[in-house]
Amino acid sequence: MKNVLIVCGVILTVYIIYRVYRYQTLDNGLDGLIKKGAVILDVRTEKEFKTGHIEGSVNISLGTIRERYIELDPDKTYITVCSHGLRSVKAENILKERGFKYIHNGGAWSDLQETIAANNK
């Protein structure tokens, strides 16, 4: 029983740390950026993208972003999204390293989609 409680405690702690990290790295005002023409860059795999995505988003997987970033306009504003928010942070950093100035972390694509839908009501 003690081992089960320890495992549950560790899982809960990891989850809490993840949620705090997610909210600290998530940029605010994304809906406003989208209304001003920001491009949503979905960095999940093509297969994941096909299972669902935000309408109008562009799909360049994290695994190919180091080669395919040249397809993007460095003067445009991009919001990176993925399934949970970790790959979007990595993609954001990679693009910033390559000179992109207007890159924002949008976290999980499904959460951003809900925010967009709620703000469009």
- Main sheet: which strands, in order across? 2-1-3-4
Task: Indicate the radius of gyration in whole angstroms.
Answer: 16 Å
Q: Quick one: how many beta strands?
A: 4
CATH superfamily: Rhodanese-like domain
CATH class: Alpha Beta
Question: How far apart are the termini?
Answer: 49 Å
Per CATH, the architecture is 3-Layer(aba) Sandwich
Helical residue percent band: 40-55%
Counting structural domains, the number is 1
CATH topology: Oxidized Rhodanese, domain 1
InterPro entries: GlpE_sulfurtransferase, Rhodanese-like_dom, Rhodanese-like_dom_sf
Protein name: Rhodanese-related sulfurtransferase
Pfam families: Rhodanese
Keywords: Transferase
Describe what you observe in this structure.
The protein has 121 residues and is an alpha/beta fold. The protein has one domain (27-119): Oxidized Rhodanese, domain 1 (3-Layer(aba) Sandwich), CATH 3.40.250. The protein has six helices and four strands, in the order ααβαβαβαβα. It has helices at residues 2-25, 30-35, 46-50, 65-68, 86-97, 109-119; strands spanning 39-42, 58-59, 78-82, 103-108. A four-stranded parallel sheet has the order 2-1-3-4. Helix 3 links the parallel strand 1 and strand 2. The radius of gyration is 16 Å and the shape is globular. The mean pLDDT is 88. GO terms for molecular function: transferase activity. It comes from Chryseobacterium shigense.
